[in-house]
Amino acid sequence: MEPVIHPSAIVDPGAVLGDDTRVWHFAHVCSGARIGAGCSLGQNVFVGNDVVIGNNVKVQNNVSVYDAVVLEDDVFCGPSMVFTNVYNPRSAVTRKDEYRPTRVKRGATLGANCTIVCGVTVGQHAFVAAGAVVTRDVPDFALMAGVPARRIGWISRFGERLAMDEGGWARCPHTGELYFLQDGVCQLHHERTPLTPTA
User: Fold this and answer.
1) pTM for the model
2) Most exposed of 7, 62, 128, 156 (fewest Cβ within 10 Å)?
3) Average pLDDT, integer, range 64-72
């Protein structure tokens, strides 16, 4: 199915949009952007030239995805969350050669009004709470909150908080997936476990 572009949106020549991607009211996609299949770009979304967006990514209203940002498959960007690409911006100083790359890994959620300071990596299936300010790398499956953001727990692929036992094990209450925490690293114990609720 071809991409669907609202008449008020601007998609510059050269931009690549995957099948069934939807670009909504007043969005602007620059010519160098590469966007996968099944994505949704909400109202007033801006996507820069040097941006790569994977498949099934949801970018909610009023989000600007600036140059040097990569969003892997299944990422969710909540309304009005913020990316940056220059660490020390000045209007009078040109720093386009100093962009710091930001990568958001597969399945991560960036909550409404959170800020991702440039140069960080947000791990797979991590969850950044609304209003948090991320200033450093985020581990896989980490639940982050606060200013600056700190890890307050762990979260499953399904989006449920994990209750680790004394041995460092936890099971997602919805899918039955098993997670293991060792040396500060949370891992899915069986990568082939299906992401479906248990009966």
Assistant:
1) 0.93
2) 7
3) 98
Residue 199 is predicted with a pLDDT of 46
Q: Is 98 exposed, middle or buried (0-12, 13-18, 19+ CB in 10 A)?
A: middle
What order of strands is seen across the sheet that includes strand 46-47?
Answer: 10-11, 28-29, 46-47, 64-65, 82-83, 115-116, 133-134
- Mean pLDDT, range 184-196, rounded to an integer: 71
Tell me if 79 sits within 8 A of 97, measured CB to CB: no
* Length, in residues, of the chain: 199
The DSSP H or E segment spanning 13 is none
* Residue indicated by tokens 């010519």: 31
Q: Could you tell me the domains of the chain?
A: 4-156 (2.160.10.10), 157-199 (2.20.70.110)
